[in-house]
Amino acid sequence: MYGEKREKNIWAIGGGKGGIGKSFVVANLGIALCERGKEVILVDADLGGANLHTLLGITYPTITLDDFIRKEVRNIEDVLVETEVPHLKLISGSLDILTMSNPKYTQKQRVIRHIYSLDADYIIIDLGAGSSYHVLDFFLVSERGIFLITPEPTSLENAYRFLKGVFFRKLRNLTSQYEVKKIIELAMDRGNPEGIKTPFDLLERVEGIDREMGALLKEEIRRFRPQLIVNQVRNRAEAEIGFFVKSACRKYFGIELSYLGYIFYDHNVYLSIQKGRPLLLNHPTSDAARCIRDITSKLINGGELSWSLR
Q: Domain range spanning residue 152?
């Protein structure tokens, strides 16, 4: 991979729905990593709706990803902004909603290519809401694809669509065969006339076209291991939603999902956002801060939450 300067970890955090706390989680995961002495870069890829800078106490960034996309600066390193946290830098997202919410393919690929060239131990990408192709592609850039939900029916429904969209987009990118690609594109449409609803349905159709490609897609299903965080949890029953999502993914998608953990609903989160300071700085011993540090540990060490909840 070109420009690689050190071994790095790239995480992307999505979820399909706005207002579930993606930027909050990205900011505080970054700080938790810095507490461990890591060099971290946060990338706000919510093009047209960026707000990660606000959560880090930066009122109005003087330079953003927009400047890089428009080629007003040559290198993505030129849009790095220092934060008050040692070892934590930010690439702020575009603030121009009208022009950058749907970037051209070449613009998106240039951003993705340069993200790989960044020099840091960890790069965390904050994705926008929804399941548009550019959101899915940024999610697929990462070695760790993390999706966030809250214990609400709308969040769960959007997360299902997001996960399905990521998976089908990943499979589409694996093949150049027109007929197979067309079937996968149809599967990405909820109302598709072929009645393809799950990866199992899709595999059956692809195997009927090309057995070898069907075997490849089966292997990709086996290797695809997204990770889950449940935010704004108020009780044990809401924390256990993560286990039910894990079971549903295995049963209906054939996907092994890792449940990293949950974050308590905590009034200190609201207070921190109001003050424009990250939770781990403003309320470092709060319940939500403790949850974030637990999740960070699992991400680093490859663990997940067990059924015996605390």
A: 9-301
